[in-house]
User: Fold these one by one.
Assistant:
Number 1:
Amino acid sequence: MKAGVYIAKKKNGDIYYRSNITKNGRHISLGSFATEAEAHSAYCEAVSIFENADITLLNLKSYLKALSYDKAITLINFRDNRIYIKTPIYLGTGFFTYYLEGVGELKFDNDDLFYYSSHRILVHDGHLYVNDYGMQYGILARYGIKNFAVCGRDYTFANGDEMDFRHQNIIVINKYHGVRLESWHGIPVHAARIHLNGEYLIGRFSTDSEAAVAYNKAVDAATDCGIQKNFIQNYVLEYTPKEYANVYTAITLPEKYLNYLRSL
């Protein structure tokens, strides 16, 4: 067999070829291939990456024919930083870059390195997510941003770069379902609204936590009236159970909303 190539068999007996390289005492799998020639080409490209410092992140793709882009990123990071990471991460100073083909370069804080070195980022219809314990989780969930959140309304990027996921760059505006920060007579308020055959304003509040409780109370009232809908209840961390109960009791649902529920 050619250098770096090993023959293997599938469960049904079909033959395929694996490519591997050993560098600095590390045995690295380069992938599986249909032919010996492809597997050897991947090996040769890996050798070139380690031996040719002129191959960089900027011109990497022009050197690749058999080796996957993801694997090539891991090799360049291993070459430059002496740390092997199985996901396509390149370490910087104080942050790291995750190279997601077809999407671009995602920046993260080093605090997230352990997580993303063991969780591969995937994309579907522009939605970035990871598989964790058999479930799909959007990467924005790590910042307390819900799946229903809208960029520019519920959260924003401080420097305008939507590929920069460093914590200081993400500003969460609306973290609760049914709650939005808006201006009312020039005063910033948190408005709670619920959509039931039209949108109903439940109230305007000085804090988002109080508005979240108001939304929850509106949901409870709708459920008590027999409305069957997959409502998303807010889990309000700012209150103890007793404080939550006091806020909940003090909130009065608007008459317009109650009249609608009575008419059902």
Note: The CA atoms of residues 124 and 172 lie 23 Å apart.
Number 2:
Amino acid sequence: MRKVTTVSLNGNAYQFEDSAYEAIRAYLDHAQRALADNPDRNEILADLEQAIADKCDTFLGKQKNVVLTQEARQILAEMGPVDGAADAGAWDAEQAVPEDDEIPPSQQLVARRKRLFRLPSEGMMGGVCAGLAAYFAVDVVWVRLGFVVLTMFTGVWFFVWLALLIVMPAARTPEQMASARGDALSAREVMERAKKKSAEFSKAAASGLRDVERNLRETFGR
């Protein structure tokens, strides 16, 4: 029998084996120190928590509601180190679980599998074709062309597409988008996304400021 700890990851409750919880907590504490001087620190930490929560979801289901030690180790190995401090590279997922904590043989490392999602952000009509293309690793153009040709010969394929639009879940989070291709979101990608989002915000703010200045000159400069 093993103790279980309930924690909140970005507002959602998850149950961990005690050693799994300690590994996750140590990783997030490490990330907090590594990002101490980063202006986007709070946003990145929230995104890291969400990414870990999404990875936890891949191990949970109706018959399983606890994240096991080996699963936590795999999650942290996928996340990788958080850059930003001198000791950031010191993080080692293999050392995340204490050496004296025995892991039952039944807790085998789970192979990452692709998950079938719609990709609305990459699609033209709901992201069905984009999701199928990602899952089967083919060019989305061929999938779209196939649907068009088949629909021209028989209208049944339109209803197939409509059924898939309803049945396939939409990939909303970065981790889900990565899972659609069989990949795993890493901390590096989370930080790059935050940096890109911050740059886009700064660019939009600067553009808005220039527009305000131009309007003021046009209004009062005469």
Note: Residues 85-90, 98-109 have pLDDT under 50 and may be disordered.
Number 3:
Amino acid sequence: MNKMYLVFIGLFLLISACVSDQELDFSTLKGDPGYFVECYLKPGDIYKLSATKIQPIHEDYILDYSLEFLVTVDTINLVQGLYKEANSGYIFNYGHPFRFAPLLQKTVSLRVISPENDTITSTTTIPEDVTIEDAQLKDKNLSFSFNTSPDGRHNYYITSIAMYLQDTIDTESVFLDYGHIHSVQTEEFEFELKADDYNQVEINLKRVTRENFDYQISLWNANKANNDNLTFPSPLEGNLSNAMGIFTCYTEDTRVLHGKR
């Protein structure tokens, strides 16, 4: 088994498909005032995008969801409002009830016009579908497998493991970098749960773009710098032109395994 991954415990911000921009203290990041945009597209899900302005570093950061942007994803014009995702609590201020259906297209584009008439653009690839196979849970040993893609660009993964302990949930996340692989092969993933007693374990496996993979790691580094006075501020590794943030697509699969009762 080729184990090239990083373990982030309790810090992974993509568990529910989106990153909450409230988790990041922008006052620690270097750079001039600008815009922060995040959009995570998933085939079959509605359009969701957050767009706001970054305050100068000497000011307190306050999310202003009232700013008027013109947002277009391919040919879909997103509608301004204040929305909250039921399951994750993710808040976004631009959306559309249409569901993202890429069909045969390989890429998707974003165009945002700011209140100051600045243009923010980005393009992202659409990862292939991903499937969790042979998921097993024996005592504290969790394992499953998945197939890589012949296209190395589609071989970046993030898996989150949610362990339900009565009224609490303990989540651990792992970044899997298989970008060096350019063939279809089965990868085995093994993980040892920390708790001795649990009701069920939920496995979520996301296939993400390389840009999103790097972005999530830079988010983790930025939060670490914010909590550690000895660490210099870390820039975000986004893929937007004229703004900070990310525009990306992902696919995912989920399995629920029952544990001890």
Note: The two ends are 31 Å apart (CA to CA).
Number 4:
Amino acid sequence: MALPQTTVVTLGDELYAALRERRTVAPLSERVPGIDIDDAYNISLHFLHRRTANGEALIGKKIGVTSKAVQDMLGVHQPDFGFLTDRMQVKNGARVSIKGSGLIQPRAEGEIAFVLKKDLKGPNVSEDQVLDATDYVCPCFEIVDSRITDWKIRIQDTVADNASCGIFVLGEARADPRKLDLAAVSMQIRKNRGKAAEGLGSAVQGHPATAVAWLASTLSRYGIPFLKGEIILSGSLAPLLPAVAGDQFDMSLTGIGGASISFTE
């Protein structure tokens, strides 16, 4: 049975307040009997509504928890999904204030972003349809964050919390995905000039386009299409890396390019 709309609104407002006040809340999955993924998605929509009502613009979508390494780290064994707004995006190479950007308990992940040249609607979207709809791919650092205390999340918690999205940065490099074997793309991440993580495109459900196709098909169940010009984040290629003030992250994707971000207090 679906949660009452009053409960959905209350929980969405709670997560929005936690975002604005830089604090965490207890896991919804422990407090709300019977909450399921559809309930969580409805909560995330209200959370998004609060953000857009405050002037943020929707610019894309994201899939997360796609690789086994991340699933094992978080104890969440299926992908999550959420939305990107313009205020989440920061420039490549930016020095980001953790407090000023509203981050609470950030972690960095490297991934491949898809930028669309035409609309893409489900259901049953294929990898070939994803590649056909893609203008280019580029490097991306997503700085995930959770409004749930101590990252103690189940799938319902992270979906309700907009797939634990914080901010993201895109590298300037652009590549044609039809000219690359995205599954074989190799990623290297350096943290404070030392090797920190590595991974392959195949870590993301076997192929990043497979993850994007899953997301397009999943969102179609809720009547949400992918739109021309949107940014689609396909998921982390390696385990998440905690970020604190003073940290600098640099990443490179073979055949695509790189991105960087650093943090201040």
Note: The first helix runs from residue 5 to 21.
